[in-house]
Structure to design on (148 residues):
């Protein structure tokens, strides 16, 4: 045990005992560092859980939006069909075999006469001719061929 000498010249055994029994600061720092690292790990886990919850929420919201959008599309299609049925018209959606273009035809339900076609037969014929011309140009390398 070490002895401390007071300014009065007496030895202070109690003070020396207190000095020698002081806890080391590095141990306190180690404990605090460990506690801080445990707290940081817990914070990271909480943050990760929050992020996962947000992703799940966004996914659920997207699914809900997709379902609502699908319902809205079905509702519009139903209303359109009701309207067409009221005016005794028929809508036909098809793909033109030669040009590969989508075609919508509006016809009279009773007589079957075509009232309107989008795109028109002229546009479809033009698309077919341009496609044929492109095939000829690709095979021969020339747009205009002449034969003698």
């Amino acid at each position: 045990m070490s002895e401390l000498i007071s300014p009065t010249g007496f030895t202070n055994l109690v003070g020396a005992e207190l000095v020698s029994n002081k806890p080391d600061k590095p141990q306190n720092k180690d404990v605090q560092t460990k506690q801080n690292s445990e707290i940081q790990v817990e914070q990271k886990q909480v943050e990760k859980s929050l992020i996962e919850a947000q992703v799940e929420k966004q996914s659920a919201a997207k699914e809900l939006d997709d379902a609502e959008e699908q319902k809205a599309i079905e509702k519009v299609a139903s209303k359109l069909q009701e309207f067409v049925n009221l005016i005794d018209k028929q809508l036909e959606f098809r793909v033109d075999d030669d040009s590969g273009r989508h075609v919508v035809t509006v016809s009279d339900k009773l007589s079957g006469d075509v009232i309107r076609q989008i795109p028109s037969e002229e546009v479809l014929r033009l698309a077919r001719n341009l496609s044929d011309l492109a095939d000829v140009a690709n095979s021969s390398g020339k747009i205009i061929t002449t034969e003698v």
